[in-house]
Write a structure and sequence with these properties.
It is built from four helices and no strands. It is mainly alpha-helical. Keywords: Membrane, Transmembrane, Transmembrane helix.
């Protein structure tokens, strides 16, 4: 896990790329009725703006709040590292999913107007299970492994 601000920034960038790419692929697949080969390439067009949004939201809002709340639930000095990781991860998902779903709705679903809230809630509900399982079982372990190899 990151030990200073530089490492935290690198870790966040890595996690953002892995999470955002998967979630953009997922949302495009949901919009077109299922996963198709073109989705992998199509997701690249949304990746830059969504990564910037995710980095800013995680760095300045979700990350600090998730850690603050997590450290009320677990103690990094006493609890097993896996419990600390899970607490921060789950709280990050809980905060990031609604925020990133809102960004996606505003930028890509043309839902301005009276349906904005309804489309945002539906998008968040659809995205939450994917974000949860992808973070806990794929993105989190992958990024922590790569990060650990880079910063031994």
């Amino acid at each position: 896990m990151p030990k200073n601000r530089k490492e935290e920034t690198i870790y966040t960038i890595m996690m953002v790329i892995v999470m955002v790419y998967a979630m953009v692929c997922y949302n495009i697949a949901m919009d077109v009725g299922g996963m198709k080969n073109f989705v992998f390439l199509a997701a690249l067009s949304e990746l830059p703006i969504m990564c910037i949004a995710a980095f800013l939201l995680d760095t300045f809002i979700a990350g600090p709040i998730a850690k603050k709340v997590a450290f009320r639930l677990v103690n990094p000095k006493e609890d097993k590292p896996i419990f600390v990781i899970l607490a921060i991860s789950v709280l990050s998902i809980w905060l990031m999913c609604p925020m990133m779903s809102f960004v996606a709705v505003v930028l890509f679903k043309n839902a301005f107007g009276p349906q904005l809230i309804a489309v945002w809630i539906q998008t968040t509900i659809i995205n939450f299970p994917m974000a949860f399982f992808w973070q806990l079982f794929a993105a989190g372990p992958l990024v922590r492994t790569i990060f650990g190899k880079i910063f031994k």
